[in-house]
Amino acid sequence: MTTLRPSPVGLSMFILKPIAVCFIFLCTVAATLCAQNASVSAGGNWKEFQSEDKMTGAQKNRFELEADNLLPDSDAKAKVLLFCVGGKLALGDFRPNLKIGPPNHASFWEGKPQMKVRVRVDNSSSSHNWNWVNGHFLAMDNDTVRQLIGAKIFKVEFDTPRGPQIAEFSPAGLDLALVKKACSLKPQKP
Question: What HEC string does the chain produce?
């Protein structure tokens, strides 16, 4: 009686074919994600990401500035993000990429929790109350965004469970014509 045994070539093809299919699938997914998140320089340390709203066709732009320093208890540097849709600023937010403290100010007009922060724009320092969004980030006011885009120095002091922290940014060099076109924003002096 003869026993049939699988040949090594047949077995390897049985194993390699699914691996090859998975590899091709992963490469396709990675290429798609990279294409959607591809950034271009917006001048200085700024990056710009562009996309289009699939339902409305509106142009969406995101400008991103990474902090110069890494804060304690954080795996990633803090960021400032400007979201523009259809040529208008939709949101400017500060993402510290670490656990922030609880809200310490209640908004009378909006009814949203806020955090009091101190901001330095070049040689000017001021206090602001930014909307506290689920403990993940702070929504900046539009005046601060306008001051930020024309600044050389930008620092934010905010509360964390460990106490106040300061994120430091170097926003100089942003292409202001690009931001005006994408967000209808012009720089403002503090």
Answer: CCCCCCCHHHHHHHHHHHHHHHHHHHHHHHHHHHHHCCEEECCCCEEEEEEECCCCCCEEEEEEEECCCCCCCCCCCCEEEEEEECCEEEEEEEECCCCCCCCCEECCCCCCEEEEEEEEECCEEEEEEEEEECCCEEECCHHHHHHHHCCCCEEEEEEECCEEEEEEECCCCCCHHHHHHHHCCCCCCC
